[in-house]
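Entries read chain and fold; for instance:
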Amino acid sequence: MLAELERAHLLTLAPPDHGYVQDEDDPYLTEWVVAEPLVLLDRSTDGYGLPTLKMSAEQEVARTRKDLEAPTELAWGIGPRGDSVLFVPEDAARRGLSVEGDGAEAALRAFIVAASAAEGVPDCGTATRVLTTTAVAECVFGTADLPGVPHVETRVDLSAALSDVEDEISERRTLLRSLGLRNAADVRRFKSDHLMQPLLLVTLPPTEADDVRLTDVIEAGRALDIHAVVLGPLSGASEVCLEADGATQAKGTAPSFDGTRAFHMSIATAQEALGVLHQATPAAHPPAEAETQPTVPLQRTAAKIRVFEPAPFQQPPVRIEVFDGLGVVVNGCDISGRFRPRLRTLLSYLALHPAGAPREYLLQEVFALEVTTKTRHKFSTELSEIRRALRAVSPDLTDASFVDDDPRTQRLRFEAAAITTDLELFTRSLAAANTAEPATQVDHLTEAVRLYRGPILPLIEADWAEPIREQQRRRALDAYHRLAQLVEPSDVAYAIHLLENAIDVDRYNIETYQCLMRTQAAVADTTGVRRTFELLSIHMEELDEDVDQGSRDLYNQLVGEELRPAVRTISQQGR
């Protein structure tokens, strides 16, 4: 009881995320860590225990994301023709949205539950964050307490919520100035590594003291992916009137809602749904032993299955993964979804730069922010948030700092005893292979190619990521080549499989195709040589290039066929 009273006293001194409740040593903060559902690691492998590379798929995701005109939105309801109607389209975001009528609370209730359940794309930060007040929570859900609800945060009153939104607007404007862009849409198109997470403010009609502030926030936020919904009348806003069954009538600048039927939900159903979401976010624990299923090899080659045991390196309890996207692995579970986009960016940078970096550099170069007392303070809060999230799922590491802050050099880096990275393990495996005997080299190189699951952080386009991504891609390609060369005398089919995987690492590396054709020819696989050469010609077409003369001569030598100059049109013959 005394602890609860003390907590209530602290909250009266400052709203959440400010003052006392921001202190890392506050004993109640661990209860406020928003926990996404645990995600068991899904490491798809082929019959050899090697990763199934997904570089082309991730690049397609990046290309698709660049074409988006708006972040992933939540559905408002169903249109007259049965089509989905999106919430907060551009025409309704200009002056805010006023929601009234017998069905307003039920519709808003359904929307907030949907926002809480939305996952979004973690690297893109597209899951809408809802910021509301305890008064709205009590009115809509029948209780002011919404503990542990993902993507939904409550503040004690509208004034406190507006302060948070004003801070967010200031920070996003600073980011736009530093990037030389106009609005959030431009950021999505040209600087996808600085995406702005959509923010929706949900409130009751403002008092006279907050009316002007709310109007200013609505005006400033529309270009920054920040919108507002008022449960009740609001002067100048787009008006939406809802019947008890969800039937919607719209006035003003919200014609998209007119004639639609909004999704709606009862208080009991909403509380049950939020309860399920809360139960789906427990503290992490080691997953139960799953039944081992027999491995089904790919039909790429008819080679004998060779599954190697990984090299025995001692690993800390937390592993940050950067190959094929960010992962934060604790006790066999990926908890990366628990971190906001800015925190994921910070984890990504520190994972790629083991020597760390000063706070000022991270603020200016990584987050494109001015170094001020306010930004320093917020950065310290974000470090504390990372530590709290990791401690919440690592009960044995309550004394770990996870991110070292060297007072002498002022550099931040991962605590070596608590955190490792798959990039570090990859580097160590390659280093061990360089000094080992040929027989042992196979094990170290096999572990290296196992760790390389795809390009480093493929969805982050930043100067601090691209050089490292290219460097590690080349090192992975070299590891595949070396491993294929070592195993070829004893297992040609496995060497062929490795070189086929190497094409997935870099589809335009001519040396890989030539090595593969030679190895296929060694087992008299003429058909395989032809397929490999045709694949090379197709990939060269993508670059609008011809197959090089050296590959032509090698193909002619191995197959004994004279190639015509038009060989690059093999794939076009079927068109």
Summary: The longest helix spans residues 158-179. The chain has three domains: 70-275, 340-420, 422-572. The domain at 340-420 is CATH 1.10.10 (Arc Repressor Mutant, subunit A).
